[in-house]
């Protein structure tokens, strides 16, 4: 691996409003490490199946704006999906939204778990353990339309996801609606079904968190990312302050 780290850490700014907030971005990169050939056309790597479009940009803007920290994945979800349990179907996807990933056929999951998945989650765990009562912000984005289900409307600008712990969700939803967004509560899918990273690092140890899915056409350019960061910043601070 030549010393490659499957994560990037942005340190919080001491004394800032957001110093106790950590953004976790499981799908922030479309990078395919050396030695892996997924067997897909290059244009696939710019699509939602390979990366959560807009997440890295919004994360960096929030870190600059409120001084929070972050852990960003540096490996494409097509290589291994950090937001899945180790034994979950789709951990190393063979297909995604109708696109075959032939390079993943016959891959030994243990190789990628050891090289990328476990170091990433270890970095998340270390980052959170070093902080007293961190507030976690899990940031993802979703495509406006799935190629395999074009009849399925996705009108929400942003979705709030959670499993058992909905404390921050109940605070954030009215704030986001008040900012003019169409907010999905457990939409476009439910965090009770897909919440692996937050189940592990937030719900299991009892840490407060907010899970957000941004619709990708809202954050696909610099202006959209900046607007979303402006909206999210006070929501994050409000959740953190009320749950501290």
UniProtKB/TrEMBL annotation:
The entry's protein name is Putative N-formylglutamate amidohydrolase
* Single GO term (MF): hydrolase activity
- Listed Pfam families: FGase (PF05013)
Keyword annotations for this protein, in alphabetical order, are: Hydrolase
Q: Which Gene3D superfamilies match?
A: Zn-dependent exopeptidases
């Amino acid at each position: 691996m030549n010393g490659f780290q499957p994560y990037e850490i942005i340190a919080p700014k001491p004394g800032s409003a957001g110093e106790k907030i950590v953004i976790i971005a499981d799908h922030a990169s479309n990078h395919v490490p050396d030695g892996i050939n997924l067997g897909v056309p290059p244009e696939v790597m710019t699509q939602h199946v390979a990366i959560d479009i807009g997440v890295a940009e919004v994360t960096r803007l929030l870190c600059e704006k409120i001084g929070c920290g972050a852990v960003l994945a540096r490996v494409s979800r097509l290589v291994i999906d950090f937001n899945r349990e180790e034994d979950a179907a789709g951990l190393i996807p063979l297909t995604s939204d109708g696109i075959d990933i032939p390079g993943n056929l016959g891959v030994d999951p243990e190789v990628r778990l050891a090289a990328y998945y476990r170091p990433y989650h270890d970095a998340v765990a270390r980052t959170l353990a070093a902080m007293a009562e961190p507030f976690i912000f899990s940031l993802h984005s979703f495509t406006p339309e799935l190629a395999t289900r074009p009849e399925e409307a996705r009108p929400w600008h942003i979705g709030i996801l959670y499993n058992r712990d909905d404390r921050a969700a109940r605070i954030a939803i009215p704030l986001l609606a008040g900012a003019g967004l169409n907010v999905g509560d457990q939409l476009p899918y439910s965090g009770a079904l897909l919440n692996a990273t937050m189940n592990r690092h937030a719900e299991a140890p009892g840490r407060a968190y907010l899970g957000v899915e941004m619709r990708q056409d809202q954050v696909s350019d610099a202006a959209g990312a900046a607007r979303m960061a402006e909206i999210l910043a006070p929501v994050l601070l409000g959740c953190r302050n009320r749950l501290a």
